[in-house]
Amino acid sequence: MKILIVGSGGREHAIAWKVAQSPKAEKIYCAPGNAGIAGIAECVNIGAMEFDRLVSFAKENEIDLTIVGMDDPLVGGIVDVFEAEGLRVFGPRKNAAVLEGSKAFSKDLMKKYNIPTAAYETFEEPEAALQYLEHAEFPIVLKADGLALGKGVLICSTLEEARAGVKEIMLDKKFGTAGNQMVIEEFMTGREVSVLSFVDGKIVKTMASAQDHKRAKDGDQGLNTGGMGNFSPTPFYTREVDEFCQKYIFQPTVDAMAAEGRPFKGVIFFGLMLTASGPKVLEYNARFGDPEAQVVLPRMKNDMIEVIEACIDGTLDQVDLQFTDEAAVCVVLASDGYPVSYEKGFPVRGLDHFTGKDGYYVFHAGTKFNEKGEIVTNGGRVLGVTALGEDLKAARANAYRAVELVDFDNKYFRHDIGKAIDEA
């Protein structure tokens, strides 16, 4: 099969790496890709939102399957465009990707179908939001309705902070049109857990659990980011928690989308909060998480293409989804200054240490080739260094050992990824 992957980050590198292991994969392309993905796939200089050009490329190169990694093209309707041209594509259609594309939609869906989540209100006018905050309990959470690169969530401890947040989201438009509408919801406390799942429109099959670290600095301090590291599995996601989530969250969500005439095929990322009163949904994403993909896919035993085709064909019930007993830890190497401002273009050294054969992997998030053909930094998040181990402590030790093997100017990373496991 000829495969096209749409995207350019660490998630897409992990997807390409996993797809390349399938005996069905004859040739892999990635649009636009990055310097790391270029080691696996032929990178094509077409942007993820250039749907017409992507369709033309898929037709001209007789692509058998297109896998969409990113949220923007999914929410923008790339799957509908490909399907209209008779092309086989993996991901939710536009009317299903709204599950991630609009927080107001997803909150209303959960309310309608009694799926556990935080109490909330939705606002289209900043004045109404400000008035609501006058009588709210703090801390409180403000969320831009639309896509904001994983950064459109503000946790406000005081009324002053919340007022400033409303201004930031709805008036200053820090997150662009994502802030045209805003959700204000109660602040939930507990362990945050990520569960990715394959969905075929009717059936949901969950992958191994993971736990993210969103804040930029050690000790969960600093600004929200797209994710500074991850580990899988999380010991806090017990069998009892899984049974509850399967019954009251995962399958009900898939059933709700089908009942709304929006059958979901693709990957649903369930962001959960394990509260004192039980698991609740923090958010949905309509694709693989990043860097969740970098810890979950190395543990997956199945042929990626077979699972994806089962999702498209509605035969996921015939798939026995399996994961190794090993643990995985991913530490993101970022450019110092991320997520605000940072320099690019620094050569990356030490990549030759990573062959993947010894349980160490490096997934490229923000890299490119310079004029000399060197791999250089090209983003806030540059690399995801992932390591396996017999348990989480071993995987964590391996990951931090591997972090020292690769270097670039202004390299920055958190030192406490997976530290919570020592408390479990």
From TrEMBL:
SMART domains: GARS_A (SM01209), GARS_C (SM01210)
GO molecular function terms noted in the UniProt entry: ATP binding; metal ion binding; phosphoribosylamine-glycine ligase activity
UniProt key word Metal-binding: yes
Alphabetical list of InterPro entries matching this protein: ATP-grasp, ATP_grasp_subdomain_1, PreATP-grasp_dom_sf, PRibGlycinamid_synth_ATP-grasp, PRibGlycinamide_synth, PRibGlycinamide_synth_C-dom, PRibGlycinamide_synth_C_sf, PRibGlycinamide_synth_CS
Pfam families: GARS_A, GARS_C, GARS_N
Family that this chain belongs to: Belongs to the GARS family.
Pathway: Purine metabolism; IMP biosynthesis via de novo pathway; N(1)-(5-phospho-D-ribosyl)glycinamide from 5-phospho-alpha-D-ribose 1-diphosphate: step 2/2
EC numbers on record: 6.3.4.13
Alphabetical keyword list: ATP-binding, Ligase, Manganese, Metal-binding, Nucleotide-binding, Purine biosynthesis
GO BP term (any one): purine nucleobase biosynthetic process
Entry-linked PANTHER family: PHOSPHORIBOSYLAMINE--GLYCINE LIGASE, PHOSPHORIBOSYLAMINE--GLYCINE LIGASE, CHLOROPLASTIC
Catalysis: reaction(s): 5-phospho-beta-D-ribosylamine + glycine + ATP = N(1)-(5-phospho-beta-D-ribosyl)glycinamide + ADP + phosphate + H(+)
Species the sequence originates in: Wansuia hejianensis
Source organism superkingdom: Bacteria
Domain ATP-grasp per the UniProt entry, residue ranges: 107-313
Name by which UniProt lists this protein: Phosphoribosylamine--glycine ligase
Secretion signal, residue range per the UniProt entry: none
NCBIfam families assigned: purD
Xref: SUPFAM superfamilies: Glutathione synthetase ATP-binding domain-like, PreATP-grasp domain, Rudiment single hybrid motif
